[in-house]
């Protein structure tokens, strides 16, 4: 896999097509594993997609006493393996992003796995394949770098200058796995 998930929060229009597509993905059992949140519900209708950051050293996997959370060779952090998960929910408490969810009926954790059955063949995950505003994209590393440079230049043209407190508003977030 040579591609990453790239997010531009301000492009999100809150349509929730990514959530609907996630429910349709292979083994997701009609449950979405990504979410659309409001930035500040009391002040704005601006939304943003919330997906697993596929951490290089994932807290969810580190705290799992049953070793139920596997990381693929490409670095994709998968949902808890059903046969190993003991339902302790340590993973849901450990994730700093609040991504893993626990299904009390099935007694197992589930989270975004970047549609691994698709992404391992460089096919875009379901959410990225349906996003109408391109807030979620599945692109290669060079394209991501180009988009980040363009964003920085646009911010300078518009007279925006990041400070330590708001620097992440100026550079699009990205996550995923890629090789050097």
Automatic annotation (TrEMBL):
<keyword id="KW-0004">4Fe-4S</keyword>
<keyword id="KW-0813">Transport</keyword>
<keyword id="KW-0479">Metal-binding</keyword>
<dbReference type="GO" id="GO:0046872">
    <property type="term" value="F:metal ion binding"/>
</dbReference>
<keyword id="KW-0249">Electron transport</keyword>
<feature type="domain" description="4Fe-4S ferredoxin-type">
    <location>
        <begin position="3"/>
        <end position="33"/>
    </location>
</feature>
<dbReference type="InterPro" id="IPR017900">
    <property type="entry name" value="4Fe4S_Fe_S_CS"/>
</dbReference>
<dbReference type="InterPro" id="IPR050954">
    <property type="entry name" value="ET_IronSulfur_Cluster-Binding"/>
</dbReference>
<keyword id="KW-0408">Iron</keyword>
<dbReference type="Pfam" id="PF12797">
    <property type="entry name" value="Fer4_2"/>
</dbReference>
<protein>
    <submittedName>
        <fullName>Anaerobic dimethyl sulfoxide reductase chain B</fullName>
    </submittedName>
</protein>
<keyword id="KW-0411">Iron-sulfur</keyword>
<dbReference type="Pfam" id="PF13247">
    <property type="entry name" value="Fer4_11"/>
</dbReference>
<dbReference type="GO" id="GO:0051539">
    <property type="term" value="F:4 iron, 4 sulfur cluster binding"/>
</dbReference>
<feature type="domain" description="4Fe-4S ferredoxin-type">
    <location>
        <begin position="76"/>
        <end position="105"/>
    </location>
</feature>
<dbReference type="InterPro" id="IPR017896">
    <property type="entry name" value="4Fe4S_Fe-S-bd"/>
</dbReference>
<feature type="domain" description="4Fe-4S ferredoxin-type">
    <location>
        <begin position="43"/>
        <end position="74"/>
    </location>
</feature>
<keyword id="KW-0677">Repeat</keyword>
